[in-house]
Amino acid sequence: MNHINVTINGRQYRMACEEGQEIRLLKLAESLEQRIETLRGKFGEIGDARLTVMAALTVCDELVDANARIRGLEEELVKLRDVRTAAADRAKATQTAVANALNAAAERIERTTQVLNRTIGGGVAIG
To answer: Does the predicted TM-score (pTM) go above 0.70?
Structure first.
Protein backbone atom coordinates (compact mmCIF):
# COMPACT_ATOMS: atom_id res chain seq x y z
CA MET A 1 0.00 0.00 0.00
CA ASN A 2 1.17 3.47 -0.85
CA HIS A 3 0.22 6.63 1.00
CA ILE A 4 -0.35 10.10 -0.41
CA ASN A 5 -1.60 13.40 0.97
CA VAL A 6 -4.72 14.89 -0.58
CA THR A 7 -6.37 18.23 0.11
CA ILE A 8 -10.12 18.31 0.57
CA ASN A 9 -11.92 21.44 1.69
CA GLY A 10 -8.60 23.05 2.50
CA ARG A 11 -7.47 20.24 4.79
CA GLN A 12 -4.78 17.66 4.20
CA TYR A 13 -5.57 13.98 4.59
CA ARG A 14 -3.14 11.08 4.40
CA MET A 15 -4.74 8.37 2.26
CA ALA A 16 -3.72 4.82 1.50
CA CYS A 17 -4.07 3.49 -2.02
CA GLU A 18 -2.89 0.61 -4.14
CA GLU A 19 0.34 1.03 -6.03
CA GLY A 20 -0.23 2.87 -9.29
CA GLN A 21 -3.47 4.51 -8.10
CA GLU A 22 -1.86 7.62 -6.63
CA ILE A 23 -2.62 9.92 -9.56
CA ARG A 24 -6.21 8.71 -9.73
CA LEU A 25 -6.72 9.36 -6.02
CA LEU A 26 -5.21 12.85 -6.38
CA LYS A 27 -7.57 13.61 -9.28
CA LEU A 28 -10.57 12.38 -7.29
CA ALA A 29 -9.60 14.59 -4.37
CA GLU A 30 -9.13 17.55 -6.74
CA SER A 31 -12.57 16.94 -8.21
CA LEU A 32 -14.18 16.88 -4.77
CA GLU A 33 -12.23 20.00 -3.76
CA GLN A 34 -13.44 21.76 -6.90
CA ARG A 35 -17.06 20.82 -6.15
CA ILE A 36 -16.74 22.16 -2.63
CA GLU A 37 -15.30 25.43 -3.96
CA THR A 38 -18.17 25.71 -6.46
CA LEU A 39 -20.71 25.20 -3.68
CA ARG A 40 -18.87 27.69 -1.46
CA GLY A 41 -19.15 30.21 -4.31
CA LYS A 42 -22.91 29.63 -4.57
CA PHE A 43 -23.82 29.41 -0.90
CA GLY A 44 -20.99 31.22 0.89
CA GLU A 45 -19.49 30.02 4.15
CA ILE A 46 -22.16 27.65 5.45
CA GLY A 47 -19.81 25.36 7.32
CA ASP A 48 -17.12 22.94 6.22
CA ALA A 49 -19.07 19.81 7.09
CA ARG A 50 -22.19 21.02 5.30
CA LEU A 51 -20.24 21.94 2.15
CA THR A 52 -18.52 18.55 2.16
CA VAL A 53 -21.84 16.73 2.59
CA MET A 54 -23.42 18.77 -0.20
CA ALA A 55 -20.49 18.00 -2.50
CA ALA A 56 -20.73 14.30 -1.64
CA LEU A 57 -24.47 14.35 -2.38
CA THR A 58 -23.90 15.97 -5.79
CA VAL A 59 -21.35 13.26 -6.59
CA CYS A 60 -23.81 10.57 -5.46
CA ASP A 61 -26.55 12.16 -7.57
CA GLU A 62 -24.34 12.05 -10.65
CA LEU A 63 -23.38 8.45 -9.84
CA VAL A 64 -27.04 7.38 -9.54
CA ASP A 65 -27.83 9.07 -12.88
CA ALA A 66 -24.78 7.48 -14.52
CA ASN A 67 -25.73 4.04 -13.22
CA ALA A 68 -29.26 4.48 -14.55
CA ARG A 69 -27.87 5.45 -17.97
CA ILE A 70 -25.54 2.44 -17.87
CA ARG A 71 -28.44 0.10 -17.07
CA GLY A 72 -30.45 1.63 -19.92
CA LEU A 73 -27.55 1.21 -22.34
CA GLU A 74 -26.99 -2.37 -21.20
CA GLU A 75 -30.68 -3.15 -21.82
CA GLU A 76 -30.44 -1.52 -25.25
CA LEU A 77 -27.31 -3.54 -25.99
CA VAL A 78 -29.13 -6.78 -25.12
CA LYS A 79 -31.98 -5.80 -27.46
CA LEU A 80 -29.56 -4.91 -30.25
CA ARG A 81 -27.77 -8.23 -29.82
CA ASP A 82 -31.11 -10.02 -30.04
CA VAL A 83 -31.97 -8.10 -33.22
CA ARG A 84 -28.55 -8.92 -34.68
CA THR A 85 -28.99 -12.61 -33.86
CA ALA A 86 -32.46 -12.65 -35.42
CA ALA A 87 -31.14 -10.87 -38.53
CA ALA A 88 -28.27 -13.35 -38.82
CA ASP A 89 -30.74 -16.24 -38.49
CA ARG A 90 -32.97 -14.71 -41.18
CA ALA A 91 -29.96 -14.16 -43.45
CA LYS A 92 -28.88 -17.77 -42.99
CA ALA A 93 -32.40 -19.01 -43.70
CA THR A 94 -32.56 -16.81 -46.81
CA GLN A 95 -29.17 -18.05 -47.97
CA THR A 96 -30.30 -21.66 -47.51
CA ALA A 97 -33.55 -20.98 -49.39
CA VAL A 98 -31.68 -19.33 -52.28
CA ALA A 99 -29.20 -22.23 -52.44
CA ASN A 100 -32.05 -24.74 -52.44
CA ALA A 101 -33.87 -22.80 -55.17
CA LEU A 102 -30.72 -22.65 -57.31
CA ASN A 103 -30.12 -26.38 -56.83
CA ALA A 104 -33.74 -27.13 -57.77
CA ALA A 105 -33.45 -24.89 -60.85
CA ALA A 106 -30.19 -26.62 -61.85
CA GLU A 107 -31.87 -30.03 -61.50
CA ARG A 108 -34.83 -28.89 -63.65
CA ILE A 109 -32.45 -27.53 -66.28
CA GLU A 110 -30.54 -30.83 -66.25
CA ARG A 111 -33.76 -32.85 -66.64
CA THR A 112 -34.95 -30.54 -69.43
CA THR A 113 -31.60 -30.95 -71.19
CA GLN A 114 -31.86 -34.75 -70.92
CA VAL A 115 -35.41 -34.70 -72.31
CA LEU A 116 -34.33 -32.48 -75.20
CA ASN A 117 -31.37 -34.74 -75.93
CA ARG A 118 -33.66 -37.80 -76.03
CA THR A 119 -36.22 -35.93 -78.13
CA ILE A 120 -33.67 -34.78 -80.68
CA GLY A 121 -32.45 -38.33 -80.77
CA GLY A 122 -29.11 -38.88 -82.30
CA GLY A 123 -28.51 -35.21 -82.83
CA VAL A 124 -25.98 -33.03 -81.12
CA ALA A 125 -26.25 -33.13 -77.37
CA ILE A 126 -27.13 -29.92 -75.60
CA GLY A 127 -25.24 -29.08 -72.40
So the answer is: no
